[in-house]
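User: I'm putting together notes for a lab meeting next week and I want to include a structural view of one of the chains we've been expressing. I don't have a solved structure, so I'd like a prediction I can at least talk through. The sequence is below, exactly as it appears in our construct file.
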Amino acid sequence: MPRFLYTLLLWLLVPLIPLRLLWRSLRQPEYLHHVGERFGFFDGVADKPVIWLHCVSVGETHAAAPLVDLLRQRYPGHKVLLTHATPTGRKAGEQLFGDSVLRAYLPYDLPFAVNRFLGHFRPRIGLLMETELWFNLIHACKAGKMPLLLVNARMSARSARGYARVSALVEDSLTQLAAIAAQTAADARRLCELGAPQAVVTGNLKFDVLPAKATAATLQRLCGVPRTIFLAASTREGEEALVLDAVQQAGIPGLLTIIVPRHPQRFDEVAVLLQTCGVRYRRRSENSVAGADDAVLLGDSMGEMAAYYAVCDFAFIGGSLLPYGGQNLIEACALGKPVLLGPHTYNFDEAASTAIMQGAAVRVWDAAALAAEIKELAHDAALRERMGAAGLAFAAGNRGAARRTLALVEKFI
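Assistant: Thanks for the context. Below is the predicted structure for the 413-residue chain, given as structure tokens.
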């Protein structure tokens, strides 16, 4: 009955789907591409048995990269299929793997669309990255006797409270999964409290994502004359104004601030904010060198976050100063960069707490505290070196999740 009511609600929402896609396409025209795939209509077929991974957007796609590489090495006779929910996730898959993997959108969780998807690709196994519970999809995989695993699974206390409101539906789905690989013991415990019969702890795949091999020479050139560089990475709506306020309060002569919004559809919005505030800036897309009087470089590019980290002296991780849950801090630590975090890091709760405890990161509570830390790090090279070394040790000490996850997957292929 709970799944019936859930499906009925989805059907009632179907007439709104074209309007939603059209609305989102105003900022990202790519939302109007491959629309048929969202309803289970696909072109082409795989010429090999398929291993399927669902990676909602950019973060999950990058996190899956080490596992995808191991799967391709271990099963050369299979084809990897990546499914996404967003155009940016699909683009990230293309940048990482080119044509070596199949790409598609995962259909909406309507029974007919899900069955068309499974019937078209006929995957031998499915892996859902992080916290992706699609109730009709899980049911269809179980009915079709296709093992479906939840890997790199995370379940924050906040998410657990939300799922508990539909506990019967969630418990039914969790029991139908072939296995669950959780990032931490706390994630595993919360999943079991929601009804999972068992969850093993394999670690966080993001620790296995090695820094990009490509150099940051181009970005270094665009930053102009050598000076202290502060990076505000993966910022969310409302945070850029707070960052600019903190930079102004810090008052560091010659400081270059790089702001990289989390979502590409906000690049122009942030440019307008900079203009309104009277801040001199350059856009990365202009490919022109920042002048000595340019205070901000707007990172309006995709797939270059590792390069932005490489050129900065220290970084603030966005999504954490306002209640968005925080973005990935691991990449900055893996490149030996001191990290500043806001109070809202529930998406990376254990990683954030451990990084702070080990001296790789510092928590700030508001723009004023961020300003104070910017000032201290800008003037203290020895502190930057200590925090960077702690970040490298923190990242290195938590690797191995990809191989542990592969060992679990091997039991079902």
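A couple of points you could mention at the meeting. The radius of gyration is 22 Å. Residues 130 and 152 are 5 Å apart (CA to CA).

User: Perfect, that's what I needed.
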